[in-house]
Amino acid sequence: MRDVSVIYSGGVDALHHVNLKINDGDFAFVVGPSGAGKSTMIKLILKEINPSSGSIYVNGYNLNKLRRRRIPALRRTIGFVFQDFRLIPSMTVYENIAFVLRVVDAPPKYIKKRVPYVINLVGLSDKARSYPNELSGGEMQRVAIARALVNDPQLIIADEPTGNIDPEMSYEILELLQSINEIGTTILMVTHEHSLVRHFGGRIININQGEIVFDEIVGGNLINES
Amino acid sequence: MRASGVKYLLGKGIENIWKNRMMAFASFCVLLISLLLVGLSVLVSINISSMIGGVEDKNEVIIYLQENATDMEISELYGALVRMDNVAEAKFYSKEDAFDDMKGNMSDYQMVFDSLGEDNPLLDAYRIRVEDIGRIKDTLAQIDTLEHIESVRAPMDFVNILMELRQILTMVCGVIILALIIISIVIIANTTKASVFARRAEIQIMKYVGANNLFIRIPFFVEGMITGFFAGLVALAVTWLSYDALVELLTHGTNVIAIFGMTSIVRFEDVAIPVIAAYLIAGTFFGALGTVFSTRKHLNV
User: Fold this and answer.
1) Chain B environment of A103 (Cβ under 8 Å)
2) Which residues contact B18 (CB under 8 A, 6 or more apart)?
3) Element of type H or E holding B16
4) SS3 B152
5) How confident is the model at residue A223 (pLDDT cuts 50, 70, 90)?
6) Residue A130: what pLDDT?
7) Is B279 exposed, middle or buried (0-12, 13-18, 19+ CB in 10 A)?
8) 3-state class (DSSP) for residue B168
9) Residue-range domains of chain B with CATH
10) Cα B103 to chain center, whole Å?
């Protein structure tokens, strides 16, 4: 992101000349109070909105020049994990994950191999035939992570992935994301749970009132753990 | 896209009907009712116009011949009448037949006829029936140019009333059918909109994982097509059965037919093919069309 500003039509100044580079293989936390501009940043990366000024590059795509009809191609290189899971309620766990591969027109053979593999990776092999409403919050989020992972994206964006689940489950989710990061996937996680950030450490980007006020790599602080 | 992808999307559309069966049922009912309303009104208007046609077929122009016309001239006149393109048939009605008919009809006045003895005061005539009553004026003008004609009696009052009646009915039916079509389209659009709205979250998720618009739309489209097709099928069955029952009732239960003649009722078999085609095509088309418009709004994520 180079010198990016976003001013919403209501005159709200959401981001203010932000410069940010997320490196390949980073595990970056984005923290900050509500309304600081965290969601705006994610919407920019997804090209759900366009910046008022400045330029954005994501996974080799220049978003300023990206045409509307090429947006799906961009989104296929990114995996998303949302606070509210956003699983398709009418599809089983297996179908939810397989859907991503069907969208990219993957061969059926590959789908049959790949989907059970990622389901196994997140430890839900016995729930593959369940529907989202039969799962706990932690399980749904693991399905969402498997879905984000299945297409082997370069970048996974997690927007408050632990916001709707138990604290002890949150650690599991983060460990899962961390292990995904270790095999080379860049992870950008928005959160306001400072205890999690302190526990795991990594690159911390603090946004406040549309500006980056802190961006440093911090080691995990295990002392604060009781 | 590979064949497996196409198969997946088609299968998905069929599966969605079951998974969203309440909404699918609502769309189905709306389509069914719309098709029935429009279909039945079209059939009724076809019948009304056929009935008027049946009455028109009873039209008769009587051409009285001059008393001194020879047999030769009379048959020449016949040839000239039959050659006119608007004359459906011409029958010779001799003055003897006319006299006998008159005696039969007016038996109370036997004495008057007896006093006439063998004298027949009537004239030979041709009774003709015209093809298209709307062109009767031209036909009469043509007849006027022929020779050996004493006078012509045409049912002009009757013709004028029929023409007016037909015009009014055609207009009324047209307006009603048009209104029904418009109402149907509005209701269908709203129902599919509601059905798609209920699944907008699903559409949004699909967009987030990088599905393009076509990929999202095809299952909806297939779903709409199939729902519409079945609505058309059921509408057809209902129309067919109720139509036949109604014809049965009119034929055997009332005297309506006696007035207009049985031939004026259109039998379902005569219009079956266009009706079947219209129902199935309209059902499928509107079912699918509804989804195109209603998904559009939710695709811009």
Assistant:
1) 206, 209-212, 215
2) B24
3) helix B3-19
4) strand
5) very low
6) 93
7) buried
8) helix
9) 3-56+161-299 (no CATH), 60-154 (3.30.70.3040)
10) 43
Closest residue to B210, CB basis, from A69, A72, A107: A72
Q: In the predicted model, what is the mean pLDDT of residues B38-51?
A: 83
Cβ A72–B204 below 8 Å, yes or no? no
Contact by Cβ (8 Å): A118, A179 = no
Summarize chain B as % helix, strand, coil (round to 5).
75, 10, 15
Contacts for B114 with CB less than 8 Å, ≥ 6 apart: none
Overall average pLDDT of the B219-232 stretch: 88
Residue B23 CA to residue B29 CA, distance in Å, equals 10
Model pLDDT, residue A90: 84
Of B1, B208, B215, the CB nearest to A80: B208
Which residues in chain B are contacts of A75 at CB distance < 8 A? Answer: 207-210
- Total residues found in chain A within this entry: 226
Q: Do A75 and B1 count as a contact with CB atoms less than 8 A apart?
A: no
- Chain centroid to Cα A58, Å, comes to 13
Residue of B256 and B170 predicted with greater confidence: B170
Give the distance from residue B237's alpha carbon to the nearest chain A alpha carbon, in angstroms.
Answer: 33
Among residues B228, B64, B218, the alpha carbon closest in space to that of A103 is found at B218
Is residue A17 scored above 90 in pLDDT?
no
Interface test with B, best of A77, A97, A103 (most B CBs within 10 A): A103
Asked if residue B43 lies in contact with residue B239, where contact means CB atoms within 8 angstroms, the answer is yes
Name every residue in A having a CB less than 8 A away from some CB of B. Answer: 46, 48, 69, 72-76, 80, 86-90, 99-100, 102-105, 107-108, 147, 151
Give the model confidence (pLDDT) of B235-251 as tens digits.
999 998 988 888 887 77
Q: What is the pLDDT of residues B68-119, one digit of tens each?
A: 888 888 888 888 888 888 888 888 888 888 888 877 887 777 777 777 777 7
Question: Which alpha helices (DSSP H) does B117-212 contain, by range?
Answer: 136-144, 156-197, 200-208
Between CA B132 and CA B139 the distance in angstroms is 10
Residues B128, B89 contacting (CB under 8 angstroms): yes
Per the structure block, which two tokens stand in for A127? 């729930």
Q: What ipTM was estimated for this complex?
A: 0.78
Instruction: Average the pLDDT over each of A45-49, A81-85, B260-264 and give the range with the smallest value.
Output: B260-264
R_g of chain A, CA atoms, integer Å:
18
CA-based nearest residue in chain A for residue B210: A72
Give the span between the Cα atoms of B288 and B222, in whole angstroms: 7
pTM: 0.69
Residue B289: CA count within 13 A, CB half-sphere:
13
**Sheet containing A53-55, strands listed edge to edge, beginning at the edge strand earlier in sequence:** A13-18, A2-7, A53-55
Structure tokens at A108: 């059926």
